[in-house]
Design goal:
CATH architecture: 3-Layer(aba) Sandwich
Structural class: alpha+beta
Strand content: 25-35%
Largest sheet: 6 strands, antiparallel
Number of domains: 1
CATH superfamily: Transcriptional regulator MraZ domain
Shape: globular
Strand order of the largest sheet: 1-7-8-4-3-5
CATH topology: Chemotaxis protein chec
Order of helices and strands: EEHEEHHEEHEEH
Number of strands: 8
Radius of gyration: 16 Å
Helix content: 25-40%
Distance between the termini: 23 Å
Number of helices: 5
Length: 144
């Protein structure tokens, strides 16, 4: 389970450290790799443990090859995916296309999202968190 927010830097080559807590969670689950994809709802990169990626792939592959809308989404899903290893220092290399999509510059924010992780440019994250949320968009998770 990934939770919390961690600020890190990203270098000119696109390397950024995965927070130690997230590395520990991956190691405890026996997850050797992560998959990075464009997150479809916000300008950020989504990091999925390999097991979560495989579960998602099964759902994606169930889409009808005759459904144009579904296939367009399959294309977006697979074409942005990159399987990455952590280097010995716990760093992740974020491919240029994903850095561009998310607008990652010097300061980034890793956010635990339960079974996945999001990677934001710090300014984008702060803007998203500071944005007014309409009452109709709020979800009461504690409601019975």
């Amino acid at each position: 389970m990934f939770f919390g927010t961690f600020q890190h830097a990203i270098d000119a080559k696109g390397r950024t450290s995965l927070p130690a807590r997230f590395r520990e969670t991956l190691a405890a689950a026996g997850e050797p790799k992560i998959v990075l994809i464009r997150y479809p709802h916000w300008r950020c990169v989504q990091a999925l443990p390999l097991s979560v990626w495989k579960q998602l792939v099964e759902k994606v592959l169930a889409a009808s090859p005759l459904d144009a809308r579904a296939q367009k989404n399959v294309l977006r899903f697979y074409s942005t995916a990159h399987e990455v290893d952590l280097d010995p220092h716990g760093r992740v290399l974020v491919p240029p296309a994903l850095r561009e999509w998310a607008g990652l510059s010097k300061e980034v924010v890793w956010v635990g999202m339960g079974s996945t992780i999001h990677l934001y440019d710090q300014a984008s994250y702060e803007k998203e968190m500071g944005a007014e949320t309409a009452e109709s968009e709020l979800v009461d998770f504690f409601k019975a």
